[in-house]
Amino acid sequence: MEIRFTPSLLAWLRCFEATVRYRSFTKAASELCVTQGAVSQQVKHLEDWLQRPLLLRTPRLLVPTPEGQWLAVVLRESFQAIEGTLIQLRRKQEDLTTALSCAPSFAMGWLTPRLGEFFRAHPDVNLRVIGEFHALDRERMARDDVVAAVRYDLGEYRDLQATAFLDEWLIPVASPVFLSAHPQLQTKADLRAPMLLHDTSPWVGAGPFEEWEHWLGHVGADVPQLAQGHHYNLSQLAIGAALAGQGIAMGRAALVFDDLAAGRLVAPFTQPVRSRASYFFLSGMDPSPHVMLVQGWLAAQAAVFRGRRDALLVGLAAALHAQ
């Protein structure tokens, strides 16, 4: 039997593969930028054309039949092979422009001040930094023409190379003005929820009070009703509010190092706690030479910074004990 891959048949297959991967018409529709009803209809067209069911539609989940699972595996492998070939064919263009998707707060607070050194050392690499914090997978990176990324999260990636290059430590920070206006704030037991500044989106999937809850739990302090604090969707915004004397932010050492060293921010409780998240460098399974160069440069910069950061944190702790 001869089968022609018409545009309609290809659309049906694409919708079916995404639906099985997510076990959801709604999530597949979000990826494909169409409506949930359109995806459901396309899958139904495919089932009618094959004259067999491919999905068992339960109230809470879509489950592929044995035939549906077989087809989904073949489609996924085929799409990956096509995607890999297209990436190889576009390698020359990628070598001209290396697009790095980077968590915005890290890009502004840590990466950008160091980029001048990179450009001087590697004038042949046209590095383009894009501030983003949405979740990534290989398909999303290929669709957005992004060949590498930096994310602050737990590093749970299925189809990308994810290499941790910098750990992170959490430490509360406030301006000297704020601390002078709140002399009652002597120990962590004096913290109150309305004083706190929150980054409510530290990484995709994290809770809105992840970092404060994590720090408080490790130092043995309890601040009820954390939601009474002030909320931001970027760590840099919370830090900016702290610099303006509006409260106490949960600082990430990579982002508050310069402000602490210059005295613009103060760490009233010098008990840094290791964050659950780290900074990860993400790339495809076959990165270009320029991507590998960027990764190596980032790792070297992180190693230098880590030594300076650890010395600062030790110095802060020593100063507190000396008081």
Description of the molecule:
There is one protein chain. By secondary structure, the protein is α/β, with parallel strands linked by helices. It has two domains: 80 residues, Arc Repressor Mutant, subunit A (Orthogonal Bundle), CATH 1.10.10; 234 residues, D-Maltodextrin-Binding Protein, domain 2 (3-Layer(aba) Sandwich), CATH 3.40.190. It is 50% helix and 18% strand. Helix 1 crosses helix 2. It starts with 6 loop residues before the first helix and ends with a helix.
What attributes does this structure have?
323 residues, alpha/beta, Arc Repressor Mutant, subunit A, D-Maltodextrin-Binding Protein, domain 2, 2 domains, 8-stranded mixed sheet, two-stranded antiparallel ribbon, 18% strand, transcription, LysR_HTH_N
Give a topology summary.
Elements: H1 7-22, H2 25-32, H3 36-50, E1 55-57, E2 62-64, H4 66-89, H5 91-96, E3 98-102, H6 104-121, E4 127-131, H7 138-143, E5 148-153, E6 161-173, H8 176-181, E7 196-199, H9 210-219, E8 230-232, H10 235-243, E9 248-252, H11 253-262, E10 273-283, H12 289-322
Parallel strand pairs: 3-4, 3-5, 7-8, 7-9
Antiparallel strand pairs: 1-2, 5-10, 6-9, 6-10
